[in-house]
Amino acid sequence: MTDRKAELAANLARVEERISAACAGAGRKREEVTLIVVTKTYPASDVRLLAELGVRHVAENRDQEAAPKAAECADLPLIWHFVGQLQTNKVRSVSSYADVVQSVDRKRLVDALSRAAVGAARELGVLIQVALDVDSSDRGERGGVGPDGVERLAESVAEAEGLRLDGLMTVAPLAGPYEGRPRAAFDRLMEISSRLRVAHPAANMVSAGMSSDVEEAVAAGATHVRVGTAVLGVRPRLR
After folding, report:
1. Is the pLDDT at 237 greater than 80, yes or no?
2. Which residues carry this modification: N6-(pyridoxal phosphate)lysine (predicted)?
């Protein structure tokens, strides 16, 4: 085993222990939580090593990095998640490799994704990104639509050809009433998810939690956690 593979294996084992302990503490089964490894800023060689170690879900947040990496790893049995703020001019590229787009926060983006998915003869999973630093339907500081805008946007996704409404995503806010309170933020997301599932029962995916707040996300009920630094190490500074 190479040094890097051994390092990744050890880091994965530590993250696995954290998720398992959090599940046990919350009275949940370990298989209820899916680990998504965020591979942004790391090379395709690391993605290959992660695949060898059993990782199946990976995430990226910048198309210019993700597109060539996904192409280089196209032979691997991976599910690719796009988690960054997405501009409409990048939609065609993202829809060619992403299986799930977790950062949908406006109708214009829904329409663009639908056109691209139909054009590529693909079905894209969609998560609505919920901004918990705003109360209204405005966009949040880190992207996302406010809680009041979720229902209308969900209807747009559900009606859009080529798209599948999978659920909700959030990032613990850096401002507003939930600043520094990730557990409260994730509890709020679960409330919004419960309401969404009344009209859209299949939209049961809840993506929340990162390296620093995995435990809080699992305790709240997240189905997917997005972990980067705790698996891959401190990120290189972007040039």
Report:
1. no
2. 40
226 forms beta bridges with 36
Give CA–CA dist 177/68, Å, rounded. Answer: 39
3-state secondary structure of 62: coil
Going by C-beta distance under 8 Å and a sequence separation of 6 or more, which residues neighbour residue 11? 230, 231, 232, 233
Q: Give CA–CA dist 166/201, Å, rounded.
A: 9
Residues 226/189, Cβ–Cβ less than 8 Å: no
Across the strands, what pairs with 104?
128
User: How many Å apart are CA 74 and CA 80, to the nearest integer?
Assistant: 10
Entry pTM: 0.95
CA distance 170 to 189: 7
**First-to-final CA distance of the chain:** 31
Judged against a pLDDT cut of 80, whether residue 1 lies above it is answered with no
